[in-house]
Specification:
- The structure is a single chain.
- The protein is an alpha+beta fold and 265 residues long.
- The chain has seven helices and 16 strands.
- α1 (3-26) packs antiparallel against α2 (44-57) and α5 runs parallel beside α6 (206-218).
């Protein structure tokens, strides 16, 4: 990893820590929120965190573009050498309801690949971070994904309702299904070995996945869509139809089960 990326990673960690303090101060309080789209809420804290991260990471810096859930899409991201991909608060509804299942997620992307990333849950003070080729850490301690090999007995972070709607639902009968609101936080928990896998069968965006996927891969895991294709970022379409994060053996088992279910369905 180049010295330049390490410098940007240090800048990222400082910015995320500062943003986390802002979010933590507001968490559990009377936070103003409103619907930005049907079924999607945003809070004043989402916007405050976005502004802070922009000021620390992007403002006045040539060679960087900005891609945030809470900002307009800027076409300069297609030509800039580096793009910050940010979700100021992933799991906004949990944050607004006082549930500690949210995270600040930010990644630096080059040529469609995350090269530095951080996922911070300020409510639990868990900072997951990684650089490409530099390993993954939780609060400074090296982390690795678990080694559970199969679906039976696996601790799987996903939506029970969405899984039950899948043609492959029977394959997960012997897995333990746990719901956590933030997908970035879910993936980070898999990277730390707290859970065995994360599965989402609903579309997600670059800012949901980029930072956490880097943490998972640097912790020895694999992130792909349900067909096994790797994820790429900063493309014309920012949406990903599905995502799985797990150790390589369990990842293959999950993909096989979902494929078999789709064929039977």
């Amino acid at each position: 990893m180049s010295e330049g990326i390490l410098v940007e990673h240090s800048r990222l960690l400082a910015a995320v820590a500062e943003a986390g303090a802002l979010a933590r101060a507001a968490f559990g309080g009377d936070v103003k929120s409103w619907d930005k789209a049907p079924g999607q809420i945003v809070t004043e804290t989402d916007l405050a965190v976005d502004r802070l991260l922009y000021a620390r990471l992007k403002a006045g810096r040539a060679g960087f573009a900005w891609l945030s859930e809470e900002g307009a899409d800027d076409p300069t991201r297609f030509t800039a050498p580096r793009v910050w991909v940010v979700d100021p608060i992933d799991g906004t509804r949990a944050f607004a309801c006082g549930i500690p299942e949210f995270a600040i997620a930010a990644a630096l992307v080059e040529d469609g690949q995350a090269v530095a990333g951080a996922v911070y849950n300020p409510a639990t003070d868990e900072l997951f971070e990684a650089t490409l080729g530099g390993g993954a850490r939780l609060n400074g301690r090296t982390i690795r994904v678990g080694t559970h090999p199969g679906i039976a007995g696996a601790r799987l972070l996903t939506s029970r309702r969405h899984l039950d709607e899948s043609p492959a639902s029977a394959a997960f009968a012997e897995a333990e299904i746990v719901a956590v609101r933030s997908i970035a936080y879910r993936m980070a928990l898999v990277a730390a070995g707290t859970f065995d896998a994360m599965l989402t069968l609903r579309p997600k965006s670059d800012w949901d996945l980029a930072a956490a996927a880097l943490v998972v891969s640097e912790a020895g895991g694999v992130v792909s869509d349900t067909g096994g294709a790797a994820l790429a970022y900063n493309r014309a379409s920012l949406r990903h139809a599905s995502a799985i994060a797990a150790n390589p053996t369990l990842q293959a088992a999950l993909i096989a089960a979902l494929g078999e279910g789709a064929r039977k369905g």
